[in-house]
Design brief:
With about 200 residues, the protein is of the alpha/beta class. It contains 8 helices and 7 strands, in the order αααβαβααβββαβαβ. Helix content is about 45%, strand content about 15%.
Length: about 200
């Protein structure tokens, strides 16, 4: 869906400060305050281009019986943010376009002090057609579910029965990690080993 051009240096700096444990520092708080302000100055034009993309894809998707999922983004400069997701979903045909949740992306945004993970789910879960299931350890996502700090009980409360579930773990993980995924996700109510809506990626 594209992005809003903001300072890459500023975005890198807030990640660096987070890694250094300086989220309470005046510099971090200042960047955290200024980034959304800077983004908002030109976001409308970029959001309109993203909406045009969805409009152009709706017809071909409808003809082919496809569903299109608009995914939670990982970084603040990317489209859509949580408010823009409201706009995009409200202007799209719900029979063709839905919400695709990414647990790691939403958790990253919360850790950096922007939108909470639960807000993404609370506001858009009713339009969810699919979800990427992976954990987060520090700021690195695509970890095996259950190996990090994600609140899986909270996530499971918002996932519709019909939503596709994709276990999206990094390629650096071995068989030991993968062998635990199904059991853990079944335990928290997010996976059925024999279910038609579950897959590993």
């Amino acid at each position: 869906m594209g992005h809003v051009p903001i300072s890459k240096e500023m975005e890198r700096r807030i990640h660096d400060l987070w890694h250094e444990g300086k989220t309470e520092s005046p510099e971090y708080v200042d960047i955290q305050r200024r980034m959304p302000e800077i983004r908002s100055r030109s976001a409308a034009d970029h959001l309109e281009r993203a909406l045009q993309t969805v409009r152009e894809l709706e017809g071909p998707a409808r003809e082919r019986g496809l569903l299109l999922g608009i995914e939670t983004r990982n970084n603040l400069h990317e489209i859509p943010n949580v408010d823009e997701m409201d706009v995009m979903l409200s202007e799209a045909d719900p029979a063709v376009v839905g919400y695709w949740h990414d647990t790691g992306h939403a958790a990253t945004q919360e850790q950096l002090g922007f939108t909470t993970h639960e807000e993404w789910l609370r506001r858009h879960g009713h339009r969810m057609i699919g979800i990427h299931l992976h954990d987060i350890n520090g700021e690195r996502d695509h970890q095996c579910p259950g190996s990090g700090r994600l609140d899986w009980e909270m996530v499971s409360r918002y996932v519709p029965e019909t939503a596709l579930r994709v276990c999206e773990v990094g390629e650096w993980h071995g068989p030991a990690c993968l062998s635990t995924c199904a059991a853990f996700l079944t335990h928290v109510g997010l996976f059925s080993p024999n279910g038609a809506n579950s897959a590993f990626r």
